[in-house]
Design brief:
Keywords: Hydrolase. The protein contains nine helices and 17 strands. The protein is of the alpha+beta class.
């Protein structure tokens, strides 16, 4: 789906824990750069290729991947992309870098998560754990809060920890589009905050995740692309303030 000139919201279908889900990576490009923000799982590679062609660029031109966080539904597809395009540069926040590189076990692979998947068939449990344990890739460039990437009209890095230690949002300056990762979500058509379930399992205070959203108030936002939910464009700045005020969170359990 075209959001702005040379900015496309992709739509990837995946099945996780016996539940069909749709996630929405973002594709941005200019004459010198083709950037994919988050990658889905290994099964999504062909869909990414086709949607890039439809958008007006090509998989062969892809030269950068930005991971908004360490969760496998955001990074598990990177390895397959690198096998075909080994020169692609991977960028992520410095605090999630060691998890993505496999130096530290990813936050989600914890007793709480294992308890949630224990009723799945053994084959499905093994597939999920395998993705967790075998999705590590080298992060070529560590990002920091406030970095402005000189690509595609300028992309500002906004560190929004809580969902993961190094979770980031990205603000595309030219189109005034916020790529929110999992910091914001859409539930029943309503903009809400981060997913509460994994934060409970990780022992994270959900208030910290909501408080980090206050940084977003500094930006003039026309569109928000949420990884779980897609596009939100109904007075986004006002809705972000309401999310912060109301402390609304997203939950897979709803």
């Amino acid at each position: 789906m075209k959001i702005a000139e040379h900015l496309e919201m992709l739509e990837l279908h995946m099945k996780v824990m016996r539940v069909e889900r749709i996630v929405y990576p973002t594709l941005i490009w200019d004459d010198d750069n083709v950037i994919l923000i988050d990658t889905g799982t290994p099964d999504n590679l062909e869909a990414i290729k086709k949607q890039m062609e439809t958008a007006g660029t090509s998989f062969a031109k892809l030269n950068k991947i930005i991971a908004t966080q360490q969760d496998i539904d955001h990074i598990a597809g990177i390895k397959g992309i690198l096998r075909e395009n080994p020169e692609v540069t991977v960028l992520a926040h410095e605090k999630d870098k060691p998890y993505i590189q496999g130096e530290i076990k990813v936050k989600r692979l914890n007793p709480g998560f294992m308890d949630r998947i224990k009723d799945l068939p053994e084959e499905e449990q093994a597939r999920i754990v395998d993705m967790f344990e075998n999705s590590s890739v080298k992060v070529n460039s560590a990002l920091h809060d406030g970095d402005v990437l000189p690509f595609c009209g300028g992309i500002t890095v906004i560190h929004t920890p809580g969902h993961t230690p190094g979770h980031i949002c990205l603000y595309h300056q030219t189109s005034r589009t916020l790529i929110a990762g999992d910091a914001l979500n859409i539930l029943h058509g309503e903009l809400v905050g981060p997913n509460a379930d994994p934060m409970r399992e990780d022992g994270v205070n959900a208030n910290d995740a909501i408080d980090s959203l206050k940084k977003l108030e500094d930006y003039d936002i026309v569109n928000i692309i949420t990884y779980h939910g897609g596009l939100f464009s109904d007075k986004p700045n006002e809705r972000i303030k309401e999310v912060i005020r109301d402390r609304k969170l997203y939950s897979y359990m709803k």
